[in-house]
């Protein structure tokens, strides 16, 4: 067990709580920085994809994990970011500005969805976001002058200061940098007033209100920020795909994003990264399985979404805190050995009472 | 002395059920004012009217001379009215510290973008918030729970944390909804001490809804008795306890 | 006359949405859970019917009954296996788990019956009732009739039977329901059985007008919109919502540019949520502190 003796308030504010953390995150930083030296193009691409999903996941985590609002339509924001970025690039905006603008456009769309859906809770909100996503999908398919319709459109190369950042190691570093910046922004948010207001809403709306938190405003902000991050991810995703078509942003994508934050562990930022790795690795794993398994099993249509569904179910039943939660338990087991008590993490179940009148 | 809060002919009904009817009272600056009454008398409803969770059907509610019935619920804290809840409404998955920091939300001077960049201004504000929070922690002896998650705390401590969180607003008026419910006699005794501390150190006016008559008579300056949503009597604890109408309200005719 | 014709096909389509929406409402009313896989249950019901009637060669009526019974069993199994461990968990988790369930059921259907479309043989195919210039397929009439009967049946059930009332009690306060001796868990199983059986009926009725394929369950999302439009938790609301969505969709398909018909349900939903978020038949109230 580790005891930290705090002598200054700053220690509670700092992002790293102790030197052990500083060391291990330092090691991780070095590893991801030198990764292009020993990874081949394919794996580098996959790792870039992890970063892209992680950025979208940071956005979704702020909304689902920290504000307690569920979105079943985040693929729409990914799409808006991707198409907006592609459009801005074609208008000749420099790459960083275009990415930022894509994020802002997406954030504006998020605020637009967030604002009217404020009075809704739980399922209502979830289904409203789903409806929004389906409408966006249709708009993309039919607004040909801008989106290219069903045929889709080519994404301009990400050239900045004469360097092509669209693929390989340069693209990897672009994704890495964006991820680090987004993560920092999110963590900063969570250690200051706005972030705490979001958490307050998640845990008790009534009491958040009496603490002076404007529910409507905070929820709208949460939606906008979440959509903004996802929009930035969308911009990078556009380059990763190279070619944008409506079928890249379906309901399955939304569910995949949600799966990422649930499997990673709701309410934790490291969880986003576990989740991102998970959803990037799983399709590869399935692809490998397809080749080794007998044809009858390996060739099942819809095997991938089916497995996604199955894993989602298993996690929700057996480990609702996700990979992150499991990791915390394992770590605690070893640090407290032999005193670890399973009951420490026993879930509290609550009896359900409806708020319906009839 | 002017009244800090005055209710004038407040009324509230839910589809034919009159939860509060024609209630008027004045709470003076700096006093501890208790509201007592049998279950279902409308005590908590009065609180919910003050914190604007319910919309009054009729009447007027003045805080420091200003009507507050038009204010949205989230503006109430900024005006200087803080409250606790009967069954505690804390932020379950957060630490005591963060719960209390949320109480500082109304004093926030930074914006979203500044916070994302964690500008020096934000850091300074956090440290300043922290000093206020630490003062409250000292007052209510919560040092050992500072970094504990609410979900892991015993009920008595949670009630204290809720009071602490309300105090972090640095309110002019503090509403305590049954501060002693679910507490053992020893803890209840403590309640009367810290109510005294709060009203002395923070200069806050306190309105509390309470069942424990010992606590009420020890802590409060004046008592309001309600029954069936209407005012029965107002006076000192002793007067109220001996008031024939109050006795009738509790015991029946 | 054309308008009347469209109206009738809209009503028939609306009844389909309404039937599935009733399944949502049933589970929500009794367990406060949202079953996002209701459309997939309908899909499974249709495939069961296909298996019993087309493959095993049972008669239509007999196959119909076998389908309803076996789907009821599937409902119980799902409740026991997947949803019972989730009692007392946040509604969001339950929603997610049923979304996952939908994906799994779709994969299973694809694995067992393949992804190529199939059609269910039935006694109505090709038969058309004519009134003047109006022509209505028997299969559409069957949908409308079936929906009406089920709707009345469920209304009576919740209004007058002990079991129906116990179901509502169980949903409104689990703990209190336990205390007064209502076997809450058994009731939950029963509700799932009922709801799955209802989905099976919908599946059998729908199969003749739309083809069988694993993705036919996506219709459930539109039905969900219908349920919300009607005010989640209200059975008549579900049917009414279904009719509104179904009719609007048919008209949008005819008079508006392409793309609009596909989004009609969602546009109606969003408008509804903006104007009257509690739905046509409100059942929600504010939390008490």
Overall description:
The complex is a heterotrimer of chains A (358), B (253) and C (289). Chain A is mainly α and 358 residues long. Chain A folds into 3 domains: 1-38, no CATH class; 39-249, no CATH class; 252-265 and 272-342, no CATH class. Helices cover 70% and strands 2% of the residues of chain A. Chain A contains 16 helices and 4 strands. In chain A, the strands form 2 sheets. Chain A has a two-stranded antiparallel ribbon. Chain A has a two-stranded antiparallel ribbon with strand order 2-3. Chain A is globular, with a radius of gyration of 21 Å. A 6-stranded mixed sheet of chain B has the order 6-7-8-3-9-10, with helices on both faces. In chain B, a hairpin with a 2-residue loop joins β4 (58-63) and β5. Chain C is mainly α and 289 residues long. Chain C has a two-stranded antiparallel sheet with strand order 1-2. In chain C, β1 (128-131) and β2 form a beta hairpin. Chains in contact: A-B, A-C, B-C. Chains B and C meet through loops of B and loops of C.
Features:
heterotrimer; B: 40% helix; C: 289 residues; mainly alpha; 2 strands; 3% strand; disordered C terminus
- Main β-sheet, spatial strand arrangement of chain A: 1-4
Name the poorly predicted regions of chain A: 352-358
- Roughly how many Å is the radius of gyration of chain C? 19 Å
When the domains of chain A are counted, the total is 3
Tell me the radius of gyration of chain A: 21 Å
Structural class determined from secondary elements of chain C: mainly alpha
Compute the average pLDDT of chain C: 84
What does the secondary structure layout of this molecule look like, with pairings?
The complex is a heterotrimer of chains A (about 350), B (about 250) and C (about 290).
Chain A: H1 10-13, H2 19-38, H3 41-66, H4 74-90, H5 95-114, H6 122-142, H7 144-147, E1 153-154, E2 159-160, E3 163-164, H8 168-190, H9 193-203, H10 205-210, H11 215-241, E4 243-244, H12 251-264, H13 269-292, H14 295-298, H15 303-318, H16 322-336
Antiparallel strand pairs in A: 1-4, 2-3
Chain B: E1 3-14, E2 17-28, E3 32-36, H1 43-50, E4 58-63, E5 66-67, H2 73-79, E6 81-83, H3 96-103, H4 112-117, H5 120-140, H6 155-168, E7 173-177, H7 185-201, E8 205-209, H8 213-219, E9 222-227, E10 230-235, H9 237-242, H10 244-251
Parallel strand pairs in B: 3-8, 3-9, 6-7, 7-8
Antiparallel strand pairs in B: 1-2, 1-4, 4-5, 9-10
Chain C: H1 2-31, H2 38-55, H3 60-83, H4 91-113, E1 128-131, E2 134-137, H5 138-160, H6 162-172, H7 174-179, H8 184-206, H9 219-229, H10 235-255, H11 260-275
Antiparallel strand pairs in C: 1-2
């Amino acid at each position: 067990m580790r005891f930290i003796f705090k002598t200054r308030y700053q220690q509670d504010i700092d992002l790293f709580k102790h030197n052990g953390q500083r060391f291990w995150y330092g090691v991780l930083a070095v590893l991801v920085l030198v990764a292009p030296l020993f990874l081949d193009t394919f794996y580098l691409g996959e790792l870039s994809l992890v970063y892209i999903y992680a950025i979208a996941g940071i956005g979704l985590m702020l909304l689902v994990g920290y504000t307690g609002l569920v979105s079943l339509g985040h693929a729409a924001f990914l799409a808006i970011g991707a198409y907006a970025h592609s459009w801005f690039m074609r208008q000749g905006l420099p790459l960083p500005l275009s990415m930022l603008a894509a994020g802002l456009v997406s954030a504006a769309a998020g605020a637009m969805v967030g604002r009217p859906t404020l009075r809704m809770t739980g399922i209502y909100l979830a289904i409203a976001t789903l409806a929004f996503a389906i409408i966006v999908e249709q708009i993309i398919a039919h607004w040909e002058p801008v989106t290219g319709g069903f045929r889709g459109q080519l994404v301009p190369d990400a050239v900045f200061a004469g360097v092509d950042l669209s693929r390989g190691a340069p693209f990897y570093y672009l994704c890495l940098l964006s991820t680090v910046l987004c993560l920092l922004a999110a963590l900063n948010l969570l250690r200051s007033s706005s972030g705490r207001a979001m958490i307050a809403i998640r845990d008790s709306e009534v009491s958040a209100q009496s603490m002076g938190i404007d529910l409507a405003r905070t929820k709208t902000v949460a939606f906008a920020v979440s959509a903004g991050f996802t929009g930035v991810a969308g911009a990078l995703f556009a380059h990763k795909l190279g070619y944008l078509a409506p079928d890249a942003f379906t309901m399955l994508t939304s569910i995949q994003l949600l799966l990422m934050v649930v499997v990673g562990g709701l309410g934790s930022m490291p969880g986003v990264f576990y989740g991102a790795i998970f959803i990037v690795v799983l399709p590869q794993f399935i692809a490998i399985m397809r080749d080794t398994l007998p044809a009858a099993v390996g060739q099942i249509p819809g095997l991938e979404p089916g497995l996604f569904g199955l894993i989602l179910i298993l996690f929700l039943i057996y480990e609702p805190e996700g990979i992150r939660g499991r990791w915390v338990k394992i770590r605690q087991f070893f640090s407290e050995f032999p005193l670890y008590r399973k009951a420490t993490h026993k879930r509290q179940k609550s009896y359900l009472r409806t708020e319906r009148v009839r | 002395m002017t009244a800090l809060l005055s209710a004038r002919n407040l009324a509230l009904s839910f589809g034919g059920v009159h939860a509060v009817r024609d209630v008027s009272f004045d709470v003076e600056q700096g006093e501890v004012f208790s509201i007592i009454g049998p279950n279902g008398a409308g005590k908590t409803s009065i609180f919910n009217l003050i914190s604007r969770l319910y919309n009054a059907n009729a009447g007027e509610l003045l805080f420091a001379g200003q009507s507050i019935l038009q204010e949205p619920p989230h503006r109430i804290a900024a005006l200087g009215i803080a409250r606790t809840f009967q069954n505690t409404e804390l932020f379950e998955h957060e630490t005591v510290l963060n719960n209390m920091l949320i109480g500082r939300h109304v004093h926030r001077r930074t914006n979203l973008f500044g916070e994302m960049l964690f500008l020096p201004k934000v850091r300074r504000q956090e440290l300043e918030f922290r000093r206020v929070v630490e003062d409250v922690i000292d007052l209510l002896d919560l040092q050992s729970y500072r970094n504990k998650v609410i979900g892991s705390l015993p009920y008595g401590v949670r009630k204290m944390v809720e009071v602490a969180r309300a105090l972090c607003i640095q309110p002019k008026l503090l509403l305590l909804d049954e501060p002693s419910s679910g507490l053992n006699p020893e803890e209840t005794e403590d309640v009367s001490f810290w109510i005294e501390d709060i009203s002395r150190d923070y200069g806050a006016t306190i309105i509390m809804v309470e069942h424990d008559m010992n606590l009420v008579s020890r802590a409060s300056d004046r008592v309001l008795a309600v029954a069936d949503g209407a005012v029965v009597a107002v006076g000192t604890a002793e007067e109220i306890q001996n008031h024939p109408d109050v006795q009738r309200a509790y015991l029946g005719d | 006359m054309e308008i009347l014709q469209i109206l009738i096909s809209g009503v028939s389509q609306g009844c389909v949405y309404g039937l599935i929406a009733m399944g949502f409402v049933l589970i929500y009313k009794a367990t406060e859970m949202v079953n996002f896989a209701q459309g997939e249950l309908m899909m499974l019901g249709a495939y069961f019917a296909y298996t019993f009637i087309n493959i095993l060669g049972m008669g239509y009526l007999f196959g119909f009954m076998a389908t309803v019974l076996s789907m009821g069993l599937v409902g119980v199994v799902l409740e026991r296996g997947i949803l019972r461990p989730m009692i007392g968990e946040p509604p969001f988790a339950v929603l997610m788990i049923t979304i996952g369930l939908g994906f799994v059921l779709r994969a299973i259907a694809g694995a067992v019956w393949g992804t190529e479309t199939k059609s269910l043989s039935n006694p109505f195919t090709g038969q058309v009732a004519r009134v003047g210039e109006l022509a209505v397929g028997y299969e559409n009439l069957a949908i409308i009739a079936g929906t009406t009967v089920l709707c009345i049946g469920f209304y009576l059930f919740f209004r007058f039977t002990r079991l129906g009332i116990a179901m509502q009690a169980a949903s409104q306060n689990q703990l209190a329901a336990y205390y007064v001796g209502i076997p809450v868990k058994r009731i939950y199983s029963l509700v799932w059985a009922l709801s799955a059986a209802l989905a099976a009926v919908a599946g059998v009725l729908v199969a003749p007008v739309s083809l069988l394929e694993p993705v036919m369950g996506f219709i459930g999302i539109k039905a969900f919109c219908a349920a919300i439009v009607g005010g989640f938790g209200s059975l008549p609301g579900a049917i009414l919502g279904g009719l509104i969505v179904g009719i609007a969709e048919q008209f949008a398909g005819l008079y508006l540019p392409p793309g609009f018909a596909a989004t009609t349900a969602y546009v109606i939903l969003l408008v509804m949520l903006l104007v009257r978020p509690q739905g046509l038949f409100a059942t929600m109230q504010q939390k008490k502190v």
